Amino acid sequence: MGSTKPFVVVVDDDEPVCRAIKRQLRSVGFATDSFNSGEQFLETLSSMPSYRPDCVILDVQMPGLNGLEVQERLAGSGLPVIFITAHDDISVREQALSAGAIAYLRKPFDDELFIKTVRAALQSTP
After folding, report:
1. Is 118 exposed, middle or buried (0-12, 13-18, 19+ CB in 10 A)?
2. Domain holding 110: CATH number?
3. Residue 108's domain spans which residues?
């Protein structure tokens, strides 16, 4: 991570959720960005080679590509993924974690636990 701020991206179709998470991450010194769809995020990643977040927070249920589909397309990128969802489904949780997600958090989540989870994800990055 060096001396630069860790860069965390939030991908969630609920704009108030994105704003709240970004505010929380910035309050502990992280740089943030957000996208309202998985397609927007993946397009930015593929069109800007220098755009490289240190961690991605994905909503499970979004229009278009859902969080699991975005995770599948990120496979092999080494990018740590944390899932957030309002609808906890054990089979979706198992699928996300078995595909390499660092964590799967149910909304609303505890702020302290969330920041600890993001820090753990950042430490898992080679």
Report:
1. buried
2. 3.40.50.2300
3. 7-123
Find the helix packing angle between 111-123 and 15-27, rounded to 10°. 70
- Evaluate whether residue 80 is within a structural domain: yes
Quick check: is 92 in a domain?
Answer: yes
Model pLDDT for residues 28-81, shown as the tens digit of each residue: 999 999 999 999 999 999 999 999 999 999 999 999 999 999 999 999 899 999
Say how far apart CA 112 and CA 108 lie, in whole Å: 12
Write down the H helix ranges in the chain.
15-27, 38-47, 67-74, 90-98, 111-123
State the total domains in the chain: 1
Return the higher-pLDDT residue of 103 and 108. 103
- Does any domain span residue 2? no
Helix axes 67-74, 38-47, angle to 10 degrees: 20
